[in-house]
Design goal:
37% helix; alpha+beta; BirA Bifunctional Protein, domain 2; Rossmann fold; 8-stranded mixed sheet; 426 residues; EC 6.1.1.21; 5-stranded mixed sheet; elongated
């Protein structure tokens, strides 16, 4: 029979690579806890209308990239989530999570977009995101940015630049929209067919174009920051002052607009030059109207999403590997008849907090001592615990260090194993 393989652009994450994922997730959970963010887990499948309404109908994600299908049982239009801010907001609205006050939430999980797979861009990709809901002040914009900045510090990543902009408020964008249409209309011959199609539907998206032939026209286009009113400018200035007070460098990028329509005021991206064209590792901003768009009572929000694959690749590029768990003990067992005596000892080691790999038998019996020590060494274990005939007959175990030749081999009574384990665990 033909071998069944994974869907193109949807990758298996195998050991030992998966250990780096676990290490990153553990570090993120620790940082989230320090900022008082709580975990939320939402479904992978959501109503298609959630993303059409939340992200904007005239966006690349909705028009081209979503995995959408019809439920065969009831005909409901469903979509594999292409991002999770809309899903978090849907859950907050559905369960009235803001009834008792604002919430700080974070999530981890897979997202899906039908794109051409390439470095740093996959059809199933993973995001870690933070959403602060019910907070309208610029200090929370700064707080979520500072949280991402702390993550880079904890990971030892230095080649990441913060770019920031303001999209203002709807009435300011409306004036800018009219100016954009007028500008691009006067240069219509320079626009590609996609830009011409979107010109009157969503002219802000033209600023995202990567078409080299359009770049001079885009560079000359009116800048949204020039249309901001005093309140929007004051909001951005407050965010920037707070970043400066923490010594966080930034660049104002007036062309930064983001790919979803729900943003207003602050938008930002953390970018790197180390990953080629897929240089954005974390991005987000403020979305004060999304909760109302999804059916809730008007309430502000701000957050970001981080691309896990890109961050892990950046860590690899930086040659600063994440600390991953080390196996503590490999149990060398020379006869399967010893297992009733050995396995309770191994259980006591695990209960003490040590990680233990047990040699398993084969149809021919237990492998030779030499073979087992070879496996013990390749496992990365710190110690081999040897259960041979002499040890079993005397109620003892021999402990051999596999990583430090200066540590002498010792034989101790099985009754002393718990004390030894406690010392190793500490």
């Amino acid at each position: 029979m033909d071998k069944i393989v994974a869907v193109k652009g949807m990758n298996d994450i195998l050991p030992p690579q998966s250990a780096s994922w676990e290490a990153l997730e553990s570090l993120v959970r620790n940082v989230m806890r320090r900022f008082a963010f709580e975990n939320i887990r939402t479904p992978i499948v959501e109503p298609t209308a959630l993303f059409v309404r939340g992200l904007g109908e005239v966006t690349d994600i909705v028009e081209k990239e979503m995995y959408s299908f019809e439920d065969r049982l009831n005909g409901e239009a469903l979509t594999l989530r292409p991002e999770n801010t809309a899903g978090v907001v849907r859950a907050v609205v559905e369960h009235s999570l803001l009834y008792n006050g604002p919430k700080r939430l974070y999530y981890m999980g897979p997202m899906f977009r039908h794109e051409r797979p390439q470095r740093g861009r996959y059809r199933q990709f993973h995001q870690i995101g933070a959403e602060a809901l019910g907070f309208g002040g610029p200090e929370v914009d700064a707080e979520v940015i500072l949280m991402a900045h702390m993550l880079w510090q904890e990971l030892g990543l230095t080649d990441i630049e913060l770019q920031i902009n303001s999209l203002g408020q709807p009435e300011e964008r409306h004036r800018h929209r009219a100016a954009l249409i007028e500008h691009f209309e006067s240069h219509k011959d320079a626009l590609d067919e996609e830009a011409k199609r979107r010109l009157h539907l969503n002219p802000l998206r033209l600023l995202d174009s990567k078409n080299p032939a359009m770049q001079p026209v885009i560079e000359a286009a009116p800048k949204l920051i020039d249309f901001l009113g005093s309140a929007s400018k004051a909001h951005l200035d407050s965010v920037l002052r707070l970043l400066e007070s923490h010594g966080v460098p930034y660049t104002i990028n007036p062309r930064l607009v983001r790919g979803m329509d729900y943003y207003n005021l602050t938008v930002f991206e953390f970018v790197t030059t180390k990953l080629g064209s897929q240089g954005t590792v974390c991005a987000g901003g403020r979305y004060d109207y999304l909760i109302e768009q999804i059916g809730g009572k008007p309430s502000p929000g701000v957050g970001w999403a981080m691309g896990v694959e890109r961050v892990l690749e950046l860590i690899q590029e930086s040659a600063r590997p994440l600390p991953t768990p080390v196996l503590d003990v490999f149990a060398v067992i020379l006869d399967s008849d010893y297992l009733p005596s050995v396995m309770p000892v191994l259980s006591s080691l695990r209960q003490a907090g040590l990680s233990v790999q047990m040699q398993a038998s084969t149809p021919e019996g237990m492998p030779s001592l030499k073979s087992q020590f070879k496996r013990a060494d390749s496992s990365g274990a710190r110690y081999a615990l040897v259960f041979g005939p002499d040890e079993i007959s005397s109620g003892q175990v021999t402990i051999k260090s596999l990583r430090n030749a200066d540590v002498p081999q010792v034989t101790i009574a099985l009754t002393e194993v718990a004390q030894w384990a406690s010392h190793q665990a500490s």
